[in-house]
Specification:
By secondary structure, the chain is an alpha/beta fold. It has one domain: Rossmann fold (3-Layer(aba) Sandwich). The chain has helices spanning 21-32, 44-57, 73-87, 110-135, 158-178, 199-202, 205-212, 223-234, 261-268, 270-277, and strands spanning 12-16, 36-41, 63-67, 92-95, 140-145, 183-190, 245-248. It has a seven-stranded parallel sheet, sandwiched between helices. α2 (44-57) links the parallel β2 and β3 (63-67). α1 (21-32) packs across α8 and α3 (73-87) packs parallel to α4 (110-135). The longest helix has 26 residues, at 110-135. It is globular and about 60 Å long. The protein starts with 11 loop residues before the first strand and ends in an 8-residue tail after the last helix.
Length: 285
């Protein structure tokens, strides 16, 4: 009789953004192999719904929730401590919080730029900074969620591109500094993937088709596509991998990102689009 070894049995994990599509799918991948998981997010109702769904799929799984903001230091520390207390150890952190929106560079100000850097970089920094002392006795794996915008320019997403490129630089630096205590730090770099944030793009065939045309494998991503890579980087199979960002994007990095001028025009107006294309800051109002 064949037996199945759950290679993450006895290990604990924290998933930030745990109610989101990629977060919940990553949690499911970890739970299937035996890990106990804490889901962190800002909305209790969404976290409870995610926990119910996960437990329905895997009866007997250990799933807890921690309500908090991944950009607030005290909230992150509390969630990590909760995960550690499950088995008196912390083995895996999956930092999925991030995001950005279409906005021309000339329509950004210091506050809007800083907000995207904080959401994408500071959220990962806090997770790594406060997870490391809890992981150090046994070693562990930290997986961040980047974007192919870190490597490929995407018009009208300058702040997001900068934030994700910064995140990947941080991942490499953290991996080098933490290797001595057995902590591996890696990232997954998705292409356009279905989630709550990208739902409007998936609902708009004209936009979706432009992205899919840049993907040699001919389809956009689903959360499970990203979760499979997260699971690999979190587990023992990748025990000699650190400081890497793995593209999971249907091959879109072989081509590029589409230009979506019509999206900016729809949000900010045709006059604003023409102004920024001419190198002018649009008038307010």
């Amino acid at each position: 009789m064949m037996t199945t070894t759950r290679v993450l049995e006895g290990k604990t994990a924290l998933v930030t953004g745990g109610a989101g599509g990629i977060g919940a799918a990553s949690a499911l991948a970890l739970l299937r192999d035996g890990a106990a998981v804490v889901l962190m997010g800002r909305r209790r109702e969404a976290l409870e719904a995610a926990r119910r769904s996960l437990c329905a799929q895997l009866p007997g799984a250990t799933v807890e929730i921690s309500v908090g903001d991944a950009c607030r230091e005290d909230d992150v520390r509390a969630a990590l401590q909760q995960a550690w207390e499950l088995e008196r150890r912390l083995d895996i952190v999956v930092a999925t919080v991030g995001g950005g929106g279409f906005r021309p560079l000339l329509m950004h100000d210091a506050a809007s730029l800083t907000a995207e850097l904080e959401l994408n970089i500071a959220s990962a920094f806090l997770a790594v900074r406060h997870a490391s002392p809890l992981m150090a006795p046994h070693g562990g794996a930290i997986v961040c969620i980047s974007s192919n915008a870190a490597r490929m320019t995407c018009r009208w997403l300058s702040a997001y591109c900068a934030a994700k490129a910064g995140l990947e630089a941080f991942v490499r630096a953290a991996a080098e500094e933490l290797a001595g205590c057995g902590i591996r730090v890696n990232a997954v770099r998705p292409g356009l993937t279905r989630s709550g944030a990208t739902g409007p793009m998936f609902d708009n065939p004209a936009i979706l088709d432009k992205f899919v045309a840049q993907m040699p494998l001919g389809r956009a991503g689903e959360p499970d596509d990203i979760a499979s890579a997260v699971r690999y980087l979190a587990g023992p199979e990748s025990g000699w991998v650190t400081g890497q960002s793995i593209a999971v994007d249907g091959g879109s990095e072989l081509r590029g990102n589409p230009i979506l001028d019509e999206t900016v025009a729809a949000v900010y107006g045709e006059a604003a689009l023409q102004a920024v294309l001419a190198g002018r800051i649009p008038e307010a109002g």
